[in-house]
Amino acid sequence: RVNLLESVPLSGQNTMQMMNVNDKWIEDGDKDVYTVFIDTTDGCDRELSATLAWYDPPGAIGCTSCIVNDLDLTVKTAQGTMYPNGLINVDTKNTVERVRTPTSNGEEVRIIVHARNLVDAGQRYSLTI
User: Is a pLDDT exceeding 80 seen at residue 1?
Assistant: First the structure.
């Protein structure tokens, strides 16, 4: 079951914070950088979670590497660069990528969406932090 208190910010019910970017256009080679400053003084002690998702055009029939417009999510923290889906490098196979990482109060975290190797002129995406 989904527990909303553990999933989304609810005013007066929990201390979660959330940032959403919806239907954002990015062009080949571009990087969108979102900077977040961690503030745990209100009691929020959850790990940071960033999820990137996009609708990719259909790949060729019989393809083995079927991503047409490849977007990459990385998260840079004081501990280093974090890659999505438990990988040690960028994810080239999925159109939903998530990074979860612990953070510290006062830390600056950069969430980066990189349009790498787009076949089309650009691609729309959504991001939740």
Answer: no
